[in-house]
Amino acid sequence: MTAVDILLTMGRFIIHWRNRKRIAWDDIFNGIALLFLLAFSTTFQLHISEKYKANLYELGLTNHAPTNYHSSKSRNMKLDVAHIFFFWLAIYSVKASFLALYWQIFKISTRFRVAWGVLTAFIALSFGFTFLGVFWRCDAPKHIVNIAACEHRSMSHIVSFTTAFCALNVLGDILMMALPIAMLNSMPRMQKSQKLGLALVFSLTLLTIVIEVARVSYLLSKDSIIYTSQRALISILEPTIAVMICALPCYRAFLSWKTKSIPRPKEISLEVPE
């Protein structure tokens, strides 16, 4: 699926350069999100294999200790922290891309500019809280890669941070989905087929919300101590799907451009009543 993200993002750059002869901020943030996704996928894959073996050994399910067990645990702790950072950087880069896209489409509306400003502030604060919160995942920034401190965290501490990150992410997704869908009704000169296409793309955010809730529910379950293939899949699925959805709006515009009955996106009037 990561290969699909690469192709879609590359296609987005090609389409927009062909149509607009420039690369906009929404394209740039999409590209940044892809880079963070690749970094996340790499660190996650490196981390999960040794972590799974270590879990089996610690639970007594195998008598074969991983090679260089103690140094391996230390390295995996660093990889764990790295892939968490890259995960959230990818997720919030996708949000930044959508915010930039929304501004391009609806910026002539005073009401939208106000709502966009409030939403952007909320997303920025959510990102700041989440990014800095990772440093306190093991009680204090100085213990961020301290194995002993992380292993002795209370369950309430884990639940509090995990649910807080999830709540901010989900609420941000809901607001980002609702804002453009509401604004589409105020665009009388945009054809209905185009409105439906954009609304469908924006509504795909529901998929990432479902995956995020499922991911957190699984992380907090009693079975999450072992890195199963199911946990690995659900952990890597969310940022992968998010980057994929991020690249889709330009393909709706491309299809409209190819259809003679629908004018090119750059010729669409986006007048919105104040």
Automatic annotation (TrEMBL):
Q: Which membrane topology describes this protein? A: Multi-pass membrane protein
Membrane-spanning residues: 28-48, 81-102, 114-136, 156-184, 196-220, 232-254
Q: Give the signal peptide range.
A: none
* Keyword Nucleotidyltransferase listed: no
* Any one Gene Ontology cellular component term annotated for this protein: membrane
Q: Keywords in UniProt for this one?
A: Membrane, Transmembrane, Transmembrane helix
Compartment annotation? Membrane
Q: Which InterPro entries match?
A: Rhodopsin_dom_fungi, SAT4-like
The UniProt entry, under Pfam families, shows: Fung_rhodopsin
Residues annotated as domain Rhodopsin: 12-256
Return the similarity comment. Belongs to the SAT4 family.
* Name of the protein this chain belongs to: Rhodopsin domain-containing protein
Name the source organism. Zopfia rhizophila CBS 207.26
